[in-house]
What does this fold into?
Amino acid sequence: MRDADPNATGNDLKKYLGGEKSALRNNTPSNTSRTLVSAIPAGVTHVVLARYIYAIHCPLSSTNQLINFIRMQRLLHRSADLLLKRNPPLALAPTRFMHTKASQTLTLHNGSTLGYAEFGSPDGFPVFYFHGTPGSRLEAKGWETFANSVNARIIGLDRPGIGFTTLPKRHCTLLDWPDKVLQLADHLKLDSFSVLGASGGGPFSIACAHSLPVDRLRRSGVAAGMGPIECGYGDTSWGRYLAFQTNIHLPASWLRWIVDRAFTRHALNPDPKVFETKVIDKIIKEVLPHKDAAFFDDPVEKQDFADDWRQALAQGAEGYVRDSKIIFSPWPFQLADVGGEVRLWYGTEDTFTPLRMARYMAKRMPNAKLVEMPGRSHMSLGDDGEEILRELIAPQ
It folds into this structure.
């Protein structure tokens, strides 16, 4: 890359930008931010990412620095788009659940496809399950044993661009989700049902409590779910805080490129063991707290997790990126306007979605009840699945 003229002036900058106004800022990355970006796959300009995400409002020392900074941004942006054009999403990753009740589809009114899976008791009370981010309909399998115990029917759904669900041309919001749930409920001839959103699925469960009729939706559950950005992320772990800021501030094309490089290429490998080794063992377990990392000591849980994430990325990273941007954008409704019954379960040792989020939301939703689970972390909260499902299916 050719350096800018060290004697560049404001007029030179205006000419370079083609008259565009720029609000870009510069900063010196901290050791922590350097550690974060060093984990990003090779080819990403570390300084650009660090400066873009962790700006600290200090002025540029020269016009020359600004020109070089903008050049690096534009080069990275073009490189990401070029890579994606050359490597379009491959066919759906194979899983052991194909051609079973875990791989069903519905054609919606607009002609798009919705993927869903069914687990638990076929004649039990229905609970629609909304997966985390990333995740897929297969995540609902983790609740199957609890569903059988309480006579519940768990129906996991793929969100747009995930698994079998069509990626729409336009970008969606949280309020686009409840209608898809209702169409599936009508298709399955369900007069009444509950919903449960875990982690990144939590906001979608709250959206249902906001928009679906109370004569159809019995109760909305949130298990360690994400809250709106106004909750603040001060009580999250430092690594999780940086990850949240990355999802919030990084342009979608950059985020898509990173996810494709780090995860998607392994998810689409025909050998599922590649994903377990390259992603679960070398990336995910390394950043999780010890209590959560122990989840993968069970080979069955590890295999199920791999199948879930491979389906999440089966169409490429775009579904995950859009899902993330929906969650981390301002929600299109006020918590005070959520009229349905909402139950929230959060672990006291959760550093991903801490109690701060839950208390913030419970205080503002008129029909919300928070249950604080002592000693539970983000992933171990699922051990109380029987209690959670029993509450969700209980008569009103």
Observations:
- The longest strand covers residues 113-120.
- Residues 96-396 form a domain with the Rossmann fold fold (CATH 3.40.50.1820).
- The radius of gyration is 22 Å.
- The first helix runs from residue 10 to 17.
